[in-house]
Automatic annotation (TrEMBL):
This is dTDP-4-amino-4,6-dideoxygalactose transaminase. Coiled coil: none annotated. SUPFAM superfamilies: PLP-dependent transferases. Belongs to the DegT/DnrJ/EryC1 family. It comes from Virgibacillus sediminis. The lineage of its organism: Bacteria, Bacillati, Bacillota, Bacilli, Bacillales. The keyword Transcription regulation does not apply. Keywords: Aminotransferase, Pyridoxal phosphate, Transferase.
């Protein structure tokens, strides 16, 4: 059976973890953590990258930093992971779900503009499959209404929009290093603080609301409780694993892109014949091959195709159930405008296996299995 995902491993992570053990510093923001933060700051050209235990935790930090409260509204797509919404629902905000564009499955900028009210405080965008949202238009809407823009870039490390790295365009951006993502350490994440006025508070928040990071830099002579906070640090053991992945980021990216293109070429005939729809990458987006998906005609055909692939030893899987249709989604949010695409498109989408180490032979087997379904 070809699994849908295998956590990425380069082979030298064990050595790095052993080194972390020997350096006698296992808690957060040690040498390996610093190496990863520096890598993110240099490579993405942003001032501050903070490693967190998950993207979920980084999103919670953004809600605290934006001072989201009970009277606020936050606009986001319904087609996303629960953490995007939870972070803001936890602060008591009302979630305003808006529709996506079918070409990219990303939030539709014009629907955002229509959903803004006097209570709107933030826009949270999700770059689905590592393909950028229409950031130019979104930043323009945000500027006009003085809104925070938070990029849930969980899937998007190494992707660009008009040459700019995803996660660095909004006021804040978040990454995930969960085992299902391109670069991993099991569980992990990062917060990019692109607005320098937020950096000091972000450091305090990460350290349980204390100024411990200033104390460690010798800027204050004892550390005290300064603000709200929690424990938002990534252990050195995880950072050690992650540092190896970041060192090999280009290899990993190139291999994933090769696999992605092989699927694209192998399935092109089925797209041309109208049996399936393939992913579309807008001209101004450079993606990171986080995901290769196809869209069947409807939910029934998707189930039959997935069942056929499973019989052929290929694990292809659907993705998000729109949040506005869930129990909690109804409690904490509302869909604003028409659900023209979110539900319908989510029911058609099927993700093919894609991971570092997936062989060409296995990719070709997957492609052949999809063709076989349509020849039946
Ligand atoms: C994976 C993912 C998350 C959650 O990441 P964790 O690191 O598991 O917390 C959040 N948002 C999106 C869009 C994701 O794909």
């Amino acid at each position: 059976m070809i699994p849908f995902n295998k956590p990425c491993s380069i082979g030298t992570e064990e050595e790095a973890i052993r080194q972390a053990i020997n350096q006698s510093k296992l808690s957060g923001n040690g040498p390996f953590g610093e190496k990863c933060s520096n890598w993110l700051e240099d490579r993405l050209d942003t001032e501050k990258a903070i490693l967190t235990p998950s993207c979920t935790a980084a999103l919670e930090m953004t809600a605290l930093l934006a001072e989201i409260g009970e009277s606020d509204e936050v606009i986001m797509p319904s087609y996303t992971f629960v953490s995007t919404a939870n972070a803001f629902a936890l602060r008591g905000a009302s979630i305003r779900f808006v529709d996506i564009s079918p070409e990219t499955m990303n939030i539709n900028a014009e629907q955002i503009a229509k959903a803004v009210t006097s209570r709107t405080k933030a826009i949270v965008v999700v770059h689905y499959a590592g393909v950028s949202c229409d950031m130019e238009r979104i930043m323009e809407i945000a500027q006009e209404h003085h809104l925070w823009v938070i990029e849930d870039a969980a899937q998007s490390l190494m992707s660009n929009y008009k040459g700019r790295p995803l996660g660095t365009i909004g006021h804040m951006g978040t990454f995930s290093f969960h085992e299902t993502k391109n670069y991993t350490c099991g569980e992990g994440g990062a917060l990019l603080v692109n607005d320098s006025s937020l950096i000091e508070r972000a450091e305090i928040l990460q350290e349980k609301g204390t100024d411990r990071s200033q104390f460690l830099k010798g800027m204050v002579d004892k550390y005290t409780w300064r603000d709200l906070g929690s424990s938002y640090l990534l252990s050195e053991l995880n950072a050690a694993y992650l540092s190896v992945q970041l060192d090999h980021a280009d290899d990993i990216n190139e291999q994933r892109l090769r696999i992605w293109s092989r699927y694209q070429q192998g399935l092109q005939q089925l797209f041309d014949d109208g049996h399936l729809e393939g992913p579309q990458i807008p001209d101004d987006c450079q993606h990171n091959a986080h995901m290769f998906y196809v869209k069947a005609k409807n939910s029934e055909e998707r189930s039959m195709l997935a069942a056929h692939l499973k019989e052929q030893g290929v694990m292809a899987v659907p993705h998000y159930v729109p949040l506005h249709s869930s129990h909690a989604g109804k409690r904490f949010g509302t869909f604003v405008g028409e659900d023209r695409w979110t539900t319908a498109e989510s029911e058609k989408l099927l993700r093919m296996p894609l991971y570092y180490g997936l062989t060409e032979k296995d990719v070709d087997h997957g492609i052949k299995a999809v063709h076989a379904y349509f020849q039946k």
